[in-house]
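thread: overnight batch results

M.L. [08:02]
morning all. the overnight job finished for the chain we discussed friday. pasting input first so we're all looking at the same thing
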Amino acid sequence: MGAEFVRIDVPAPFGEVVLLTLVDETPPKARERRADAPLVETPEAAARRLRRLIVSLREGALKSRDTRRYQDGIDKLLTIREPIAIELIGGLLAEAPLPGRRAMFEALRRFPEDAATMQLVSRAMLEEDEPLQRAIVDELRRRDDPRVALEFRAALFDPSDGVAGRAALALAQLQVVEAIPDLIRGLTFSDVRPVEVTTELGRSMLDDRFVQPRPPIRVGRRGGGEFSTLTTHFSPRRVRVMRTQTLEALKQITGENHGFDQEAWQKWYLATQAVGPVEEKR
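M.L. [08:03]
and the structure it wrote out:
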């Protein structure tokens, strides 16, 4: 960009006036290249664009029962390659119907980034469809990331029985023998849980806190006469929790079965460590 000065003489009282004119000295071909250059998209704008696309697919093609339209939706989802989309895909499709969650898995497995690995770990602990959950764990095995087993081992003590159970089965599928002590610890434990109890209306129910009464159940004989009114409600009670999926994982990894007897499992484990490490049971 250059500048050109032009002098113009005008009568008094203004005197001499000098005008400055800007002149574009860029060669014509360079100007053409500059005009054709793509606009740079900010990360915020990219995130908004991807969110709109993923939501549109979730509410449209990925819900469709038409095989061709559903496959077209998957194909469009798989064209997304920006790493910024990883969390969007995992978050926006997590609660989608099963076909949408399958598409989410297919999309996430194509990202090599750490964020995709952590999204898959989360999905393995939340996915209720067993074949899909096993496919996710197989993909995590292929990635061979040591953090995966650590995440599953930590989840064995999650308050949710479902999360802890799927973490245990994932450890069994991966044959993580180092997780045996954690599996034994998480096998059974004491906890306060809401327990459904039946009480006579107006008596012991009033002694319980956090009561969620249900409609009364009338017990008596037809045609009138004496009857008592019972009600069921949930009340916090200390109970013994036994996690069956954790037991199943122990059996698959060790080939042993000591039931829910933690003491027996601990004695067995100490005995095996005295003679050598536990071998994987494949």
